[in-house]
Amino acid sequence: xxxxxxxxxxxxxxxxxxxxxxxxxxxxxxxxxxxxxxxxxxxxxxxxxxxxxxxxxxxxxxxxxxxxxxxxxxxxxxxxxxxxxxxxxxxxxxxxxxxxxxxxxxxxxxxxxxxxxxxxxxxxxxxxxxxxxxxxxxxxxxxxxxxxxxx
Length: 151
Fold this sequence. Notes:
Layout: H1 3-13, H2 18-27, H3 41-49, H4 59-66, H5 76-87, E1 94-97, E2 100-103, H6 117-125, H7 131-150
């Protein structure tokens, strides 16, 4: 779970568009330390899409714009509850279990043709990784592969 994913779930649960959120956030006039400027709508969209990492100084403004506690942006249980609310109790991904929310095991099993337990463990956890993390992993592994081929 990434902060931008939590924000998007909150927006869905409140039927609030990304544009309306961006306007509300900009109206609070959050200034980035690096530029001393208010982020543009385009930058806010990039934060919401996960293509840019959120700046820590924006967290309090985001929480204020959404009228939530800052801690909720980092709370896995809060996020899971939002997902269930937005997708319904019969969601394929999230299922309540007593007082706890748990993630179901993925339906697809990946065949691993290696005896390396680390590789097997990573492959079984990949379905839980956010897209930006997967893209970073792919990029790094491609670089390592190319360097290895050159040797």
